[in-house]
């Protein structure tokens, strides 16, 4: 069998979610609508937080970062997927695949870190309410946000750099709807043990460590909430965490399932549906969850809408 390196590989063939011709129009419509809703929803969240000064708090500052990541994540994978659905050629160049893999891996790692930071923010807010503004000051928030973005980018660059040492052969058919590290590694004709080792180490840090830190934060949060005597106080304390806890549960379940299994089983089953959950559905659910579960966001939205529709009454 002839071996080809990245310089002689013209493209990868992306199978997509389904190769049945009769489903292509339906899939295009469904994911186009989801993508538009995701973009509009996250842009709306960012706009509301920027406009309403009452939301200029650490919790909503991190929510802006989360919305930006969701826009980035979906924009990396979905437009190419939609293009491939309506085009006869479903290929992606090696360079395009590497760029997509790099950007997506960066967004994935950054989001896991950001969710951990958001859990820490809720821990301080619930357990140390009187010192919250002192601890979570502007400087610390900026440093935390910068750290998660930088660490996510560095992790991505390491994985991307290791891709260039691999050789690919055969038809380079990628049974996925975008380029992701586990699926690309399965196409390699060369030894990927170094890639697997680095990926396992990154998974342990971003997946397990971040999950455990978030779990510790919420253990203290639940303990503090239980000690609150009034039912109204408990409800208010829990409502500030419910949105974040919902997002964390969905995101970690799907990401850990996809990225930890390769460490234990190289011949793993296709994970396209699970990948679609955190690549496409999670970004569209996040603004919905936060807008429905967060009273301040709903009030800010109604206030802005009221000014536009009934300016004379505001």
UniProtKB/TrEMBL annotation:
Membrane topology: Multi-pass membrane protein
Pfam family, any one: 7tm_4
Membrane-crossing segments per the record: 25-50, 57-78, 98-120, 140-158, 205-226, 238-260, 272-292
GO cellular component terms, semicolon-separated: plasma membrane
Keyword tags: Cell membrane, G-protein coupled receptor, Membrane, Olfaction, Receptor, Sensory transduction, Transducer, Transmembrane, Transmembrane helix
Source organism superkingdom: Eukaryota
PROSITE patterns per UniProt: G_PROTEIN_RECEP_F1_1, G_PROTEIN_RECEP_F1_2
Limits of the G-protein coupled receptors family 1 profile domain: 41-290
Any GO MF annotation of the entry: G protein-coupled receptor activity
Location in the cell: Cell membrane
Record-stated family: Belongs to the G-protein coupled receptor 1 family.
Protein name stated in the entry: Olfactory receptor
Natural source organism: Microcaecilia unicolor
Name of the encoding gene: LOC115461199
């Amino acid at each position: 069998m002839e071996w080809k390196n990245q310089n002689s590989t013209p493209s990868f063939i992306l199978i997509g979610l389904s190769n049945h011709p009769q489903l292509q129009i339906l899939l295009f419509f469904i994911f186009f609508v989801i993508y538009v809703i995701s973009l509009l929803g996250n842009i709306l969240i960012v706009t509301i937080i920027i406009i309403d000064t009452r939301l200029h708090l650490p919790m909503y500052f991190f929510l802006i970062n989360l919305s930006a990541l969701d826009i980035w994540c979906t924009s990396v994978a979905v437009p190419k997927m939609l293009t491939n659905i309506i085009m006869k050629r479903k290929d992606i160049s090696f360079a395009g695949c590497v760029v997509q893999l790099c950007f997506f891996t960066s967004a994935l790692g950054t989001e896991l870190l950001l969710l951990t930071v958001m859990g820490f923010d809720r821990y301080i807010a619930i357990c140390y309410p009187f010192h919250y503004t002192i601890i979570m000051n502007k400087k610390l928030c900026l440093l935390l946000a910068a750290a998660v973005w930088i660490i996510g980018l560095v992790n991505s660059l390491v994985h991307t750099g290791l891709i260039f040492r691999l050789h690919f052969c055969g038809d380079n058919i990628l049974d996925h709807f975008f380029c992701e590290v586990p699926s690309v590694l399965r196409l390699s004709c060369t030894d990927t043990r170094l890639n697997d080792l680095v990926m396992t180490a990154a998974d342990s840090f971003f997946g397990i460590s971040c999950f455990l830190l978030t779990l510790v934060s919420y253990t203290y949060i639940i303990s503090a909430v239980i000690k609150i005597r009034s039912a109204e106080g408990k409800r208010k304390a829990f409502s500030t965490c419910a949105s974040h806890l919902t997002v964390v549960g969905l995101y970690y379940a799907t990401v850990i399932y996809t990225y930890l299994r390769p460490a234990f089983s190289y011949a793993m089953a296709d994970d396209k549906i699970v990948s679609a959950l955190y690549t496409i559905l999670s970004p569209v659910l996040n603004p919905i969850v936060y807008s429905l579960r967060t009273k301040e966001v709903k009030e800010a939205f109604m206030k802005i809408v009221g000014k536009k529709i009934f300016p004379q009454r505001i």
